[in-house]
Design a protein that fits this description.
By secondary structure, the chain is of the alpha/beta class. It has a single domain, classed as Phosphoglycerate mutase-like (Rossmann fold, 3-Layer(aba) Sandwich), CATH 3.40.50.1240. Helices cover 38% and strands 13% of the residues. Strand 2, helix 2 and strand 3 form a beta-alpha-beta unit.
Length: 172
């Protein structure tokens, strides 16, 4: 099975802002991003998307009937959402980095919870029998999926980086 992991376009948010589950619009021309990505996708690919508009808009430009799945949303950072990372505080961020899978931002979710819901989606998707699936989603989700599909330990997939509007193709 082939997976095409597509990160959403650049969001409309100030640099240095913590955002995850916040439903941000895009700051890029979605049609231009879609035109660049479309040739990399196989014909008749099944396309899933996060329901957040920064993903959904690109998915709709790429496919006539994308399937929204809430498990593909970015991590919920709770009370950190839409605050500058600098305002969250170094001590708090260090505590999160020290226990990335288990630390819960106030009112949010842990990376372990993000991982669990994404892996549940992956299991169901893998059982579907589709030869190829495209996912328009977020960096955190793509990190989890890349880690699972490549057999990486969390310490390795935490540091992976994916550009806005990029496509990562993986076989499983």
């Amino acid at each position: 099975m082939e997976f095409y992991l597509i990160r959403h376009p650049l969001p409309a948010v100030a640099p240095g802002t913590c955002y995850g589950r916040t439903d941000l619009d895009v700051a890029e021309d979605v049609a231009a991003v879609a035109a660049r990505i479309a040739p990399a996708l196989p014909e008749n690919v099944v396309l899933y998307t996060s329901p957040l508009q920064r993903c959904r808009k690109l998915a709709q430009a790429l496919h006539p009937s994308p399937r929204a799945d809430a498990r593909l949303q970015e991590m919920d950072f709770g009370q950190w959402e839409m605050r500058p990372w600098d305002a969250i505080g170094r001590t708090t961020i260090n505590a999160w980095v020290a226990d990335r899978l288990g630390y819960r931002p106030p009112g949010g979710e842990t990376v372990g919870e993000l991982q669990a819901r994404v892996l549940m989606f992956l299991d169901e998707c893998s059982a579907s029998g589709h030869p190829a699936v495209a996912l328009v989603t977020h960096a955190g989700v793509i990190k989890v999926l890349s880690g699972a599909l490549r057999g990486l330990a969390p310490a390795a997939w935490f540091s992976l980086e994916f550009e806005y509007g990029s496509v990562t193709r993986l076989k499983w």
